[in-house]
Write a structure and sequence with these properties.
2 copies of one chain form a homodimer.
Chain A (H helix, E strand, L loop, with lengths): L2 H4 L1 H5 L2 H6 L3 H28 L4 H6 L3 H9 L7 E2 L2 H12 L7 H23 L11 H24 L8 H10 L6 H19 L1 H7 L4 H9 L1 H15 L27 H32 L6 H17 L6 E2 L1 H9 L6 H17 L8 H13 L5 H9 L1 H17 L1 H21 L3 E6 L6 E3 L11 E6 L5 H17 L5 E5 L8 H16 L3 E5 L3 H7 L3 H5 L4 E2 L2 H8 L4
Parallel strand pairs in A: 5-6, 6-7, 7-8
Antiparallel strand pairs in A: 1-2, 3-4, 3-5
Helix pairs in contact in A: 4-17, 4-18, 4-19, 6-16, 6-18, 7-8, 7-15, 8-15, 8-16, 9-10, 9-19, 9-21, 9-22, 11-14, 11-19, 12-13, 15-17, 20-21, 21-22, 22-23, 23-24
Chain lengths: 576, 576
């Protein structure tokens, strides 16, 4: 029996469930995990705020309240909620049309976007609309994430080069970078490249090195995650010590100290209307990312998450972000995996992490004054390039051309037209291709395999058929988009076989018949009747037969409904 | 072998096929049919032109060239092409936004609309896109036609009452009629109601009466169709003889004599862009109406029509309408049935009908001067009310709630928001409901029926199961929108059955597996593996297995693929 049926209150407030069983062991595990995640989150939060076009401290603000709210409402034990790369990029794209980066209006719109996204997520959760996320196919998500990774990396390269570059899409951005290449600030670039190289190496090479030095596996794991913090510390110290700022290296500068502020979204219906679509897309992408991370981690411990309750938890998280100076957040992949690996047992780990981030924003921010922006750019580039996976193109090409087209459309749309257009194009193309496929069902003429009672495609096998009878097997549920194909197939069979007396539809692949298909069957029956041919059915599934009972079609069917196709052939036109 | 393969030239020019075999018998049959259709078409053409907001003679023009072109390119032997009610209504709706009824601009836009529609239809035919019409489900078409019938009837009631009334939708129109009721012109209304009553009676009561008088069935049939012509003759004579015009009855007035004029569409890209969507919708609705009529009639004589070639023929017809002063046309239901019943053998009947209409527009138009507009309104009302079928609501309610919702959305959308919005809403809703249904597949846990080798739903039947093994049957092809449902179902099974060792998917209802579903299967396999459970498949269909061969999933599958589900149970966890 699931918890949901056991207690409906604790299904809305999962904290009542795990909170009751909290003890010293879980406290220690959660505390250790929280410490590690906090260290990892500080540079990430700053970097993703900059990526979203916001002041760095906003990233810290967005990492406090959402973690607390998720701890109350969330069903995953280990999900860590906060700013993530793709959602930050989408936030920047959405606000870019309404305000200029760095202005108070820009921040106010980010807060409003978090508010709208939070409201939508909560509403979808209450209405149990979590299934809507299923319409984002894996190829579309994969293409979208890869393209977003490239877009983000390209946007960070200008910071790495110390130049200004702009472009309304990926290709324009790369073109602009090439045009501005002559203005490259060499010190910034050198430091940026070295930092990037170090971070890449830290991901792959640091752990074996630490293990080689005799460290325990768990400690080596944890130290590996501190790569970005190390990079920040070293480059900040160098910039301060060698006065790199004086030589033109751009630094983060003053980051205000203090608790997250109390803020309000902009109450402007016209603005809400314009932000509605971006907010919806951000909500769906955030939800999909969060749920897939949560599900994967939960399964490893034979736990489950409730997608609809996750919507409520993410909604509450985003609403809280809106009232504490943050911007749209979701459950992040990297931080959740770290939290899981570090041994977090309950969402209390999130509460402790929130505490850590609060302490950082109270006391640590002055230490970030000399942090070079290029270091943060390097952190982002390393993080997002791991998201880019062109292998999906090869895999879908080999397995399914329709899926390949969907990936390509999403990739091309996102790189060429931006994140929102890319996502909409991807979903539209994948749905259109699915409809197209299901509208052209595989209809095989089948014949009896000699010496057996089974039937196979006449084009593939040596089978027996009678000129007076045609057996058609439809490998698809019948609905409006494909029912005329069946009509046409049967019309053609009748027009080309003058000796035909019986048509038998083998219905083993038909899982449902909608009203249009039922009318088509009636039309087929009438037309066959007019031509002196009888229509029969065989192997109709139980649920389909339940529906057909009581319809005029079954009542007026001139032929019979046979339990097995073999019985039909034996009775109507034996071939053996 | 079909004609298409026998001769590709005659597949593009079906006239080469039937023209070669033309003889005296077919000539006589076609001639008689043409005479009857011509008599029926004259009032219809005038009436539908008025319905479209055009001068009455335009209806005659639109009934000449399209018939000739269809005779050359069409694949139906009996389809009669010309103005039809629903397309005329859609034409009025499309032009209404750009010009005022009665102006030369209005007519010019009608001509342009015919041109665009013709070009689109031809292009769709050449690109073999006829299958796109399949995405209009029967419930949507039925709801759309019924709502259009009501809209048309309501628009004609004002002419019947002799008042002016306007409304941007059905309800506003009816409201306006009620407000203007006090201005009703009683003579017009009395004549209109009597004419309507006569026409309704002529449909049902005239034939039995004529048969009772001793006429032969065929002749009685033909005379029944002359009801509208009789109504026109009598009311025109009365209006002339009793000077009803002087008493305020509105008449048709001068209808210019002469051949259809040579005209050109407006070459204005901005206008084309605005007309593109209406032209596309008109094309699709016209094509669907035409093809369903053509297919039904062809089947009665064991003939077939080629939908893609029909697109070309209707395209040529509409293009010809654009260059001869006409407006959008299609194959009409009533006229085609009359043509068929009257014995038309080949499209030459259409050529003779075109000749008849030409003669009428050359010599008959002065006789129409005193024709009351209310008589034409009565003809339209009687014609369109036969299209209204609310029975579809009852039938779909009984058979399928999803189809019921689609009908209701189309009806409501068309009546409340107009023909274009209604059609778009209907198609969107029906596609969304189909996707929704397929995204929530029926997944049954099955168990062994004692004493057999077959498996049934554990919730419906007394069957045997083992606590170590769960058998799941998925009654739907797996694709992105439903693959997570399967993940969730299996997660839940694993989380609630601690003794579980094996999951076996019975794949007999799975007709395809897309790349997303394949990834989901991989995820399921990994998660089950992490939980110490083994995944197996059974009864995988041939085409699905072909695809799976060579994928990583099949390679890494820890369990087996069994030919039958019974074999799987026997080997893994026998229950008998």
């Amino acid at each position: 029996m699931s918890n949901r049926t056991a207690s409906s209150l604790s299904s809305w407030l999962p904290i009542l469930d795990w909170g009751r069983r909290y003890n010293r062991d879980t406290f220690v595990s959660d505390g250790v995990a929280a410490l590690i995640v906090t260290i990892m989150l500080i540079p990430q939060s700053l970097a993703y705020a900059l990526l979203a076009g916001l002041p760095p401290e906003v990233g810290l603000y967005a990492s406090v309240a959402p973690l607390l709210l998720y701890a109350v409402f969330g069903t995953s034990r280990v999900l860590a909620v906060g700013p993530v790369a793709v959602v930050s990029l989408m936030t920047a794209a959405a606000i870019g049309e309404h305000a200029i980066v760095g202005t108070p209006e820009y921040w106010a719109i980010a807060i409003t976007l978090a508010f709208l996204s939070g409201a939508m997520l909560t509403l979808m959760g209450v209405l149990r609309l979590g299934f809507l996320a299923n319409f984002l196919s894996h190829p579309v998500i994969s293409g979208f994430i890869s393209a977003s990774g490239l877009l983000i990396a390209a946007s960070q390269v200008k910071t790495l080069m110390g130049v200004t570059a702009e472009g309304e899409n990926f290709f324009a951005l790369v073109h602009s970078l090439v045009l501005h290449a002559t203005n490259t600030h060499m010190l910034t670039l050198t430091m940026g490249i070295l930092t990037t190289a170090f971070l890449f190496w830290a991901r792959k090479g640091l752990k074996p090195l630490l293990l080689g030095l005799g460290l325990k596996a768990r400690l080596a794991d944890v130290l590996t995650k501190t790569g970005p913090v190390l990079a920040i510390a070293v480059t900040t110290l160098l910039t301060w010590g060698l006065d790199w700022q004086g030589q033109g290296v751009k630094i983060v500068g003053t980051v205000p100290q203090g608790l997250p502020p109390l803020t309000m979204p902009v109450w402007d219906m016209a603005l809400w209307k314009e932000l509605a679509i971006p907010a919806l897309l951000i909500s769906i992408v955030g939800f999909v990312e969060s749920v897939s991370v949560g599900q994967t981690l939960a399964a490893k411990r034979r736990q489950r998450i409730e997608p609809d309750q996750e919507l409520v938890a993410l909604g509450a998280g985003n609403l809280s972000a809106a009232f504490t100076g943050g911007f749209p957040v979701t459950g992040g992949f990297a931080r959740s995996v770290v939290n899981f690996d570090a041994g977090a047992q309950t969402p209390a780990a999130g509460v402790f992490t929130a505490l850590g981030i609060t302490l950082a924003s109270l006391f640590l921010t002055p230490a970030l004054y000399f942090l070079p922006q290029a270091t943060l750019a390097a952190t982002i580039i390393v993080a997002v390039l791991s998201l880019v996976d062109f292998g999906i193109l090869k895999r879908t090409w080999a397995y399914s051309k329709a899926d390949f087209v969907a990936v390509l459309a999403t990739l091309g749309g996102t790189l060429g037209l931006g994140v929102e257009a890319g996502l909409v194009i991807g979903v539209s193309v994948s749905l259109a291709l699915f409809l197209l496929r299901s509208s052209r069902p595989h209809i095989a003429e089948v014949g009896l395999v000699p010496g057996t009672e089974s039937f196979r495609n006449v084009l593939r096998h040596a089978v027996k058929v009678s000129p007076a009878l045609i057996s058609l097997r439809v490998d698809e549920s019948l609905y409006f988009a494909n029912s005329r194909t069946l009509e046409d197939r049967i019309n053609s069979a009748v027009a080309t076989n003058p000796q035909l007396k019986h048509v038998v539809l083998q219905c083993s692949g038909i899982n449902s018949i909608d009203a249009s298909a039922l009318e088509s069957l009636e039309t087929i029956e009438k037309r066959l009747h007019d031509s002196g041919v009888t229509l029969h059915l065989s192997e109709v599934k139980g649920p389909v037969m339940d529906r057909l009972q009581g319809t005029e079609f079954l009542h007026e069917l001139s032929g019979k409904v046979f339990l097995t196709h073999y019985q039909a052939i034996q009775e109507l036109a034996p071939v053996e």
